[in-house]
TrEMBL record:
Pfam families for this protein: MauE (PF07291)
Protein name: Methylamine utilisation protein MauE domain-containing protein
GO biological process: one example: methylamine metabolic process
Membrane topology of the entry: Multi-pass membrane protein
Boundaries of every Methylamine utilisation protein MauE domain copy: 1-139
GO cellular component, one term: membrane
Length: 368
């Protein structure tokens, strides 16, 4: 039992640290997931939960940092009993969220491991039950974990450093872009190629005759067989990775394929009410400088705001570039920055920039 307890102890601490770091890699994405939960709770339990939407990103950093710190504290066996009880609180909290999502089909992805590992609601709930099982083994066998690796002042120092590092990682990612991009629009990806399936769908047909059920790779010509069901044998490969990338002008005309040809500098403005207006002098300078580029770069603006709202906004910030429209969720997936810059070459993402890291023309030309 001692060996099992040690394995569960290491695994539980490591999972919490890993989960926290993955979320801290993209606190904006975690914040969006929390906003989704708050909207669901507001709809089901009262509008009070909408108050928390304004603090979603801060809460994302604090909750994710807490996971990391508790994981470190557990591995150090620092105040082991108190650490385990705090971990239990988190496990119950996350378990409630994942069960609620699964049972009532409210949030289809809990964001437990960010965009690195996608889990269905029931998979997420099963993961929480597994972690609860690890917790129970460790909690009821603490006698095998008596040795503390950091006592007194040294322990406080370790926990302080862990807290500072975790929060620092999250704050920096919040002010720039994620350290690691796990979304379909990461640098190097070909958007046009990802909008097409890797291979054609292959089907398995289940038919019945005289009480006998049989599966076929090809639909039989024998009409004595009766159709029962059909399923795709290669669902992942036959489904495009990107299914919702669509760009329209103000009249509703589709310009998606046009955007994916040639060299494009895309300025993504997700929401005119939240977009950082202080950066538009630099953005306008970059857009104006594209005319001098030997690479024939076409600057475009893509927004999810309404044409009327954006027209007023563009005059306020003196923005002079063609404007197109896309779904808000798509733009949030493309870049975790508002505004943000995407450099495309024939649909291939060559560069992505947060508004705190606006490149100059020479940098953009170097990418093409």
């Amino acid at each position: 039992m001692k060996l099992i307890t040690h394995i569960c102890w290491v695994l539980l601490g490591a999972v919490f640290i890993f989960s926290g770091l993955i979320k801290l890699n993209d606190p904006v994405g975690m914040g969006l997931k929390l906003e989704e939960y708050f909207e669901v709770f507001a709809e089901d339990f009262g509008s009070f939960f909408l108050v928390f939407k304004g603090f979603a990103r801060t809460m994302a950093i604090l909750l994710s940092s807490l996971e990391v710190v508790l994981g470190v504290a557990l591995l150090l066996r620092w105040h082991l009993r108190k650490t385990l009880l705090t971990l239990l609180g988190l496990l119950v909290f996350f378990g409630f969220l994942t069960f609620y999502s699964a049972a009532f089909n409210k949030v289809t992805d809990c964001g437990c491991f960010g965009d690195f590992i996608k889990l269905t609601p029931w998979q997420s709930f099963s993961k929480d039950l597994f972690l609860l099982g690890l917790w129970a083994v460790v909690f009821f066998n603490q006698r095998y974990l008596r040795r503390v690796f950091a006592k007194g002042t040294l322990g406080v120092m370790y926990i302080t450093v862990a807290s500072a590092v975790a929060i620092g990682i999250g704050v920096r990612a919040l002010g720039h872009l994620p350290y690691f991009d796990f979304l379909p629009y990461k640098v190097g990806n070909d958007i046009g190629a990802l909008m097409k399936p890797k291979e054609q769908a292959r089907y398995k047909y289940v038919l019945e005759r005289n009480g006998q059920t049989q599966e076929f790779d090809q639909y039989p010509t024998d009409t004595t067989w009766k159709y029962k069901s059909m399923e795709v044998q290669n669902p992942e490969a036959s489904r495009p990775i990107i299914t919702d990338f669509a760009i329209f002008d103000g009249d509703g005309k589709d310009h998606t394929q046009e955007i994916l040809k040639g060299n494009k500098l895309l300025l993504i403005v997700q929401n005119t009410n939240k977009s950082d207006r202080d950066r538009y002098n630099l953005l306008n300078a970059l857009i104006n400088s594209t005319g001098k580029s030997p690479n024939k770069i076409t600057p475009l603006v893509i927004t999810s705001s309404s044409p009327a709202d954006f027209d007023a906004f563009r005059h306020d910030v003196n923005l002079a570039a063609p404007v197109y429209y896309a779904d808000a969720t798509v733009l949030k997936s493309i870049i975790r920055s508002d505004p943000g810059i995407i450099v495309l070459q024939n649909g291939v993402v060559k560069g992505k920039y947060h508004y705190h890291d606006i490149p100059d023309q020479e940098t953009v030309d170097h990418l093409l």
